[in-house]
Design goal:
The structure is a homodimer. Chain A is mainly α. In chain A, 71% of the residues lie in helices and 10% in strands. Chain A is built from 7 helices and 3 strands; from the N terminus they run H-H-H-E-H-H-E-E-H-H.
Amino acid sequence: MGRAASARAPAHASDAETRATTDHHAALRVWLRMLATTTLVEGHVRGLLQSGFDTTLPRFDLMAQLERAPAGLQMGELSRRMMVTGGNVTGIADQLERDGLVARSADPDDRRALRVKLTAAGRKAFKAMADAHEKWIVAALGTLDHAELATLAGLLARVRAHVRTKYGERP
Amino acid sequence: MGRAASARAPAHASDAETRATTDHHAALRVWLRMLATTTLVEGHVRGLLQSGFDTTLPRFDLMAQLERAPAGLQMGELSRRMMVTGGNVTGIADQLERDGLVARSADPDDRRALRVKLTAAGRKAFKAMADAHEKWIVAALGTLDHAELATLAGLLARVRAHVRTKYGERP
């Protein structure tokens, strides 16, 4: 039917319009799906951290950033590296310090600044949480095979790089 | 080199292990990338809504859910449909009602319940925000062509369906 119609009339403008509208809707639909999928997975991760470890996602995220920085981080850098928003980084670090999981000390390279690090207890607590978290993520994303995971990673990386280049880091 | 090594020794167990570790890391890496990409895009969307419309993402999200439900929604159903977490739905609805953008009235099918709807002013305000939002999303995701958007949508849908089936809706 499409072919018959296009044989009858010069439908170029209208096709382009339809395509543009379809593309607009496709981009918006993909974004809403990305948001819904992330929110769904994140909700389960929050539940897992709460029920299994009596902790929160921002606490886990903060410890994950420190685990990747054995020399510790200044608070500003730590804030910038956090993956989840919401929650005041100083407040979370204060709680973790009271629980003995992180420690603050003078930065050897910058005496006016403090550096925050995981303690030995913090590294141990983080390891248990990170193992459970990884296991759950593997089960959640395990419906995709290796090639599909690589495709998904590549497409997300393209979107991320494009947004960073065009609009900068998140405001 | 890989071929020479595997010709020398039965490396099956170690290959399987490497593959499992690689797959685990792949799933975790994809999830961290999904989280980072969503957080980045969401941060820009929050900035756009704030600077362009002096509004927040939860307010926009609430209005978007109502725009898709012209007959209005009961509060419980509205909460369930929200795509972003954080922010108390009743409080947001109260603010929007004070601003004349939503209205609450008795539900004709259930006299004990209230239904919340967009007002005419709410629909108009939402339309302006939704147009700007869609334009920005199209620019942000526009680095992917039509086929890539479809691939990304399909992979996200698979993850979402799998998580819902296996673990249920977000807790």
